[in-house]
Specification:
Two copies of one chain form a homodimer.
Chain A: E1 2-6, E2 11-12, H1 24-27, E3 31-39, E4 42-43, H2 46-60, H3 67-80, E5 88-96, E6 107-113, H4 117-125, E7 127-133, H5 140-143, H6 157-168, E8 173-177, E9 190-195, E10 198-201, H7 212-223, E11 227-230, E12 243-248, E13 252-259, E14 262-263, H8 268-280
Parallel strand pairs in A: 7-8, 7-13, 10-11
Antiparallel strand pairs in A: 1-2, 1-6, 3-4, 3-5, 5-6, 9-10, 9-12, 12-13, 13-14
């Protein structure tokens, strides 16, 4: 099942062409997106997703997204979905710079999609990850905002290529490292490190996206007595953790069971505890 | 005027939607492109463009483009253009990974466009450029092929953002620098440095695109007795040059008259000489 609503509120057919060839979102990857998990009609962390959409728009100097309009489109897609048939939806919000040489009107749409079986399997079984160099140091994002390091842009070819490199190495996922030896993020997820009763994730100002799923988990964990910290994580700390997790909307909190080909200590029980905490938020 | 032909040979209306919302070219910037200059019906450096398209496809692990098919589409667009009305065309070749979750068939099209007045002005008047950090060292491309540094991908949001940063600094163009102090390229052009009777441009293996216009100029210049070198250029060499030029298909060989706000030595005569050499190739 798929449900498509354009930014101006029209329900459209996702099997038919809807985008012009000269849309800058296509021609230049010049646009932004969010992926929201919706469970039984309830969007998770919608406020944080819309905050991040606004932040990405600001970094790309796109017109500020109209929050009320996007909320209405989200509602339309949710209302058009058959929840009895499919209790979960990945809801993409896409917002581009519009037509090349046009009047500056952005292109936008909300698209509800099924969640792939592979993702469901990874939620349950965990993933093998490899560390791949991302090529920049953790100070670059603040020094060079034109590199858009904290924006969730449509220019994701590198993130996709990293996934193929992981597959070539027999793994499912990637953890990007910075040139100065700290951990960044996954291509489409945030890294969370658990040790003792503390959860840590790297700070957005090193050139990564602020996590929405990570934020939900950290709220719940803190309420349950965990210590939660947003601070740099050195690469050398990864193998010393009680558990590594990749958090993203559709994958929720996914366990990393293998890092660079080496099996990590069993974090199954920890994963169950964190998943229960995460779910308790909704 | 605009002429659009899809990869399967259909003439299509560029004012109507032709692309689905779930095309990976749009959703992930996951595709590649080329821009070919066509003058009075003759495409310039088409072989080099198609070579580069094939190289980009290989880096992104896209199905190898069928050269004969692309040549036929180029011919169709050229045949559909009114050369009497408009003697120059920018011909975009776009090739994406196709529909997300589809059967792997790429999306492709060839789109003929007018050349913007701004570009024509810059050919004549030259540009002011600023040096912007690109954030990686010149060894990264070979070390980390998943970063796609030598591919002409659709993920160009950073290149566009760099242009906006240049405008904010009162300039027209950008010259990207590597972390180790060497010159890379412009966001949509190659840098050429002239000193004495030598032309130099940086090598593609440091993470930049091999230039098609630069290649044409170098062939002509070498025949005319210039020495041409593909070798690293240090940032400190830029202000010591007789002339700096940004080469791209649609802008041809454009003179840089100002660098980081400082007027460079007048290279008008040199520009005229190099432009004549470049034009002599076609």
């Amino acid at each position: 099942m798929r449900v498509l609503v354009t930014l101006d509120g029209n329900v459209a057919d996702p099997d038919q062409p809807q985008i012009r060839v000269d849309d800058l979102g296509l021609m230049r990857g010049d646009g932004i997106f969010e992926t929201v998990l919706v469970v039984e009609g309830k969007p998770r962390e919608l406020d944080l997703h819309l905050n991040r959409l606004a932040r990405s728009a600001s970094l790309l100097e796109l017109p500020p997204p109209d929050r009320a309009v996007w909320e209405a489109r989200v509602r339309q897609v949710i209302d058009g979905w058959s929840w009895a048939d499919s209790p979960e939806m990945a809801l993409k919000l896409v917002y581009t710079r519009g037509i090349d040489g046009g009047d500056g009107t952005p292109t936008g749409f909300a698209l509800g999609l099924e969640i792939a079986q592979k993702v469901r399997d990874q939620r349950r079984d965990g993933v093998a990850a490899v560390i791949l160099e991302r090529g920049f140091d953790s100070g670059l994002a603040e020094r060079a905002p034109w590199l858009l390091l904290g924006a969730k842009s449509l220019s994701y070819a590198v993130n996709m290529a990293a996934g193929r490199e992981a597959a070539r190495r027999g793994a499912d996922e990637v953890i990007f490292s910075a040139a100065d030896g700290v951990v960044l993020e996954g291509p489409t997820s945030n890294l969370i490190l658990a040790k003792g009763r503390t959860l840590r994730t790297p700070p957005p100002n090193i050139g990564i996206l602020p996590g929405t799923t990570q934020a939900g988990l950290f709220r719940a964990a803190e309420r349950a007595g965990w210590s939660v910290k947003i601070e740099s994580i050195g690469l050398d700390e990864l193998t010393d953790a009680d558990g590594l997790f990749l958090a993203s909307s559709v994958r929720k909190v996914t366990r990393v069971h293998t890092l660079d080909g080496t099996r990590l200590p069993d974090s199954t029980a920890l994963h169950a505890e964190l998943t229960a905490l995460y779910e308790s938020e909704y």
